[in-house]
Amino acid sequence: MKEVVIYTDGACSKNPGPGGWCAILIYKGIKKVLKGFEENTTNNRMELKAIIEGLKALKEPCKVTVYTDSAYIVNAINQNWIGKWQKNNWKTSEKEEVKNIDLWQELLEFLKVHNVKFEKVKGHSTDTLNNMCDEIARSMIKEMR
Predict the structure, then answer these.
(1) What is the rounded distance in angstroms from the CA atom of residue 5 to the CA atom of residue 24?
(2) Residue set of the binding site for Mg(2+)
(3) Would residue 17 show up in a list of annotated catalytic residues for this protein?
(4) Which residues sit opposite 21 in a β-bridge?
(5) Residue 127 a catalytic site member
(6) What Gene3D superfamilies does this protein's entry cite?
(7) Disulfide check for 22: which of 101, 117, 130, 137 has CB 3.0–4.6 Å away?
(8) Per-residue pLDDT, 145
């Protein structure tokens, strides 16, 4: 099984507002940058979108390590919030509807195909690829305005 690393980040101006996302895929040292923009969105949607688009770009099942600065996503997966949400008919522990259900469900489909591990990185710190993702995601907002 091929091993791929994906760095991701999402950004949003005004939250909600215009947003951008970036995913950097790395396979055997070769980098591929994916990026996108949405007119009216939230930061969490852009974080999820970056991961989904990164996984969507893979042409076959892979072993993937996703690096993200989103504690929301890492905790939802690694602490199995997502499993609890599904059991509770997509309700949080406070009985509120989970936000971004459409994207969580799409992500779950890719998690069935790929063996994915999520790692939290500190945002706006010393991680070069995370910083690059952040810059690209933010630049998408500026470019598309």
Answers:
(1) 8
(2) 9, 47, 69, 134
(3) no
(4) 10, 36
(5) no
(6) Ribonuclease H-like superfamily/Ribonuclease H
(7) 137
(8) 67
